[in-house]
Structure formats: C-alpha cells, structure tokens
Amino acid sequence: MMTPQVESPRRLGDMPLCEARISLTTNVLALERYFTENPSWPGCVVTDDARIVGIVSRKRLAGALSRRFARDLFAKGNLSKLLEVGIIDATPLVFDADTSVLSCVKTALQRTPDMAYEPVLVMLGDRPALAEIDLLMRVQSTLLQEALDAKDALLNEVQQSAERLHRALNNLEETRDRLLASEQRLEGEVEKRTQELARSNADLRDKQTQINDELEVARTLQQSILPAEFPVDGRFEGRAIMRAARMIGGDFYDVFTLDAERLGLVVADVSGKGVPAALFMMLVRSLLQEVARHVDSPAECVARINTLLQERNQVSLFVTLVYGILDVPSGRFTFCNGGHLMPYVLRRGQQPQTITERASPLVGLLEGATYKDHVVDLSAGDGLLLMTDGVAECFDQNGQAFGSERVLHLLGNGEHHEIDKTIERLITSIDTFAAGTPPSDDVTILMLRYLGRPEAGLSGGSAKVI
After folding, report:
1. For residues 347 and 1, what is the distance between their CA atoms, to the nearest angstrom?
2. Rounded to whole angstroms, how far apart are CA atoms 376 and 268?
C-alpha cells in the first residue's frame, strides 16, 4: 500500500500569506524601515481610511529609492508620493482564497515582464493579504513533482501486484493435480487478484490523466512566456519557432527592444529535460531580460548572468546561449556565444557563412568565466539564422544524426532569402529524416532578415513568431 503523504497546498487560502498593511499617510522612509525589520514581508497592502489603495512591494520600493536623487525626493513625503509615480501598484491582481495556485501563477505571469513577479492580492473574506509569486512557483513545481512521484509509486504497486498474481498462477499450475478439490477456491483467488489488478490499472489511468492535465498547464505557461510578436520595423523581419521534445522543454528564444534603435535576440538551450529544465529556463530568461536593459555589452551581460546563476543554481544545471544586439540603423550585430552553436550568416547571393571563432564557456557552470563579444555587419538583404542543437542532433531510426553538413546543404542552394520557406524547409527535412523516431532534444530556430530601409523605429505589432 502507498504511504499517505501530506499534500502541498493547492488553494491560495492554504498558502502562507502576508497580511501586512500600511496607511497611505506613512512616511516613505518609515516603510523602508518596516521592510528592514520584517524581512519576510514581500510587500504591504496600502490603505486610506480602511480603503485599499494598492500594493507596494519590497522590490519596487528598493528599486525606487536606489535611483539617483530619489531618496532625497521621497524622504520627507508620505506614500502618496509613491502612488503618484506608480511605485504603488494601484491595480493589482486580486484573487479569492479558493483560487488554485496553478491558476494564480498562470495569470500573474501573463503580466508585463516588470510586473510578472510582483505580489498579488488575496482576499481572505474581508481581510486583504499578499501572496509572493516566487513562493507560488515553488509550490507549483512541488505539485508537479508530487504528481510524478505518485505515478512512480503507483506503477511500482501495479508491478508488485502483477508479480504476486504471476506467482499465484505458477503455484496453481504446480499443484493442480493434487488440489482438484480446491479448484473452486483457487479460481476465486485468481478472480480476486485479477480484480485487484484491474482496479490498480484504473487508478493508474486516473493518475496518468491528472499528470497529463498538470503537464499541459505547465506547457501552456511555458509557451505563454515566449514572445508572441516580433517587433514590426521596415528595416528587418523575422520569425522564430520552439518545438519541445517532451510536453515541456528547456529551449527558448526571445526577441525584445532595448531602445528605439536596438533589438535584442536570444536563442538558448538549458541542460536536462522536463520540468526542472523548464523552470531553469524561466529563471535564465528573467535574469537575461533584467540585466540586458542595464548593460550594453552582450559579453558583460552574459558574464553577470553566469555569476547570478551560480548563486541561485542548486541543481547544477547550466545553459548554452547566443545573446546579441542588432543596431538597426547600421546593421551591426554584436553577440556573445556562451557554449552554443555559432549563428549562420546568410549573405545575399552567397553561400551561407559559419563563424569560425571559438565560443565562450557554458553559462552557469564555471566561476569567474570570461566572455567575448563577436561582431557581424549585415547589409540589406543579409540574414542571421540561430538555432539549438536539436536540429543537427535529430536522429533517424538507425541512430544517425542529421548533422551540420545537411543544414549547410539546405541553406546552400541560395533560397534562404525567404524566412518562412527556410524555417519550414528545415523542420520538414528533420521530420522526414527522423521518419517517426522520437526526438531526443528540443528544436528552436530563429531567423532574422535585415532589410536596411530606414523607418520611424521599433514598434510592436503582428509578426511571424510561432
């Protein structure tokens, strides 16, 4: 029999919540002192005559006071100053106590990147409280792991039941000549064991359905954090695709504007597979987006992420990645390669070019690793192709890899100027090559074409990202 275990909380009302409240008339520096005295508080609910005004988080307050001249500006004022400049979230997400942890995390992560990890408001009847998103994500991970552990335990129980049934059948065959008088009793025993096995199989199917449902939620969450749009600009066009080997994967890509004239591009591959790789992927993406907005050099950005990952990496995972910045007016692409495949440079009217310079170390593995910037100058009509090793390491039924030579052959016929056709030809080719062989790794492809026509600058809009 399976040993009963205490299940992790599934409702927000079962979670440890923070019920700290503070008046809108409180001095800003007094709030800072409260946070110092209460390090477990993720934030405070701000009220004005018992009316909820909004949420002020520890992180947003610290960020505001760390800015130049901000401390002097806010030192003599009360929290209404923070409300005026948007440091207090006046429109927080609000949930009731019966909301599930999975639903809350999914909704919270759909907010803008700067707000995705901010606390949310939970109403415990008429009492407001705060839930910390990082804690909810850890509980979500635990729930998924509990489901997987339950599956393994149930499989083991079914196997033991099958072995018991097998032994019982062997004993029946060995003693049937001597126990004809006990035939009816033995048939009843076999029937009983068969019913136990049928019940165990039914339980297994129910558990498998539950696991699949929870993994589908995790897959939806993972897909939701990948950019659904490529920035629209008359000077370039692009498309990206990520296909996981399992229901959830460790590959990811990202496309984001750094300012009106610079575009950030990322393709990355986390070590490992499944839930741990997917959670580590979310950590890497969050750190990269945060650091990239404060550091101009891709190499310096990757070096900082390497240090941050070593501080937070308890499971010895690492990531390979290419992070680059396209200067849109000039076409110059400056990038850092952290142990990843080098980009392909697709010159107009020429064979594809591969960059022969050596990549920098893996990210998150080596303390004090140094990273180097590379530069590619693009002319109008030139393109870049970034991918993970799931393309070259696609295997057929005989265990043969697709290989980089086949990739170069597909790109070398001069038809790589159309982004959609190039990506679809690569995907179709590896699927045909595999001939039904299950994929061994995630596949991510990002392609950008530099057009060179001057426009007003970067903006959001519909684009071909799937």
Report:
1. 65
2. 19
Residue 436: CB atoms within 10 A of its CB come to 7
Tell me the residue type at 320.
Answer: T
Q: Which of 139, 135, 123 is CA-nearest to residue 45? A: 123
Q: How many domains does the chain have?
A: 3
Mapped onto helix, strand or coil, the DSSP state of residue 3 is: coil
pLDDT digits (tens, 9 = 90+) for 43-82: 999 999 889 999 999 998 888 888 777 787 787 789 888 8
Domain boundary residue, one of 131, 161, 182 = 131
User: Are 279 and 423 members of one domain?
Assistant: yes
d(CA 8, CA 25): 39
| Cross-strand pairs, 265 | 255, 324
Q: Do residues 38 and 72 both lie within one domain? A: yes
Structure tokens that stand for 205 in this block? 């199917």
- Residue length of the chain: 466
The domain that holds 61 is classified in CATH as: 3.10.580.10
Contact 132/120 with Cβ under 8 angstroms? no
pLDDT bracket for residue 207 (50, 70, 90): low
The three-class DSSP label of residue 263 is strand
The whole-angstrom separation of Cα 463 and Cα 66 is 37
Residue type, 418: E
Q: Which amino acid is at 209?
A: T
Question: Buried (b) or exposed (e) across 35-53, using 16+ Cβ within 10 A?
Answer: beeeeebbbbbbbeeeebb
Q: What are residue 233's DSSP bridge partners?
A: 236
Res 323: pLDDT: 98
Helix segments in 238-360, DSSP class H:
274-292, 298-312
Show the domain range for 244.
Answer: 226-465
Q: 387 and 449: one domain? A: yes
The two most distant CA atoms of the chain are separated, in Å, by 98
AA letter at 450: Y
Neighbouring C-beta atoms of residue 343, cutoff 10 Å: 26
Of 105, 131, 157, which residue constitutes the final position of a domain?
A: 131
pLDDT above 90: percentage of residues in the chain: 37
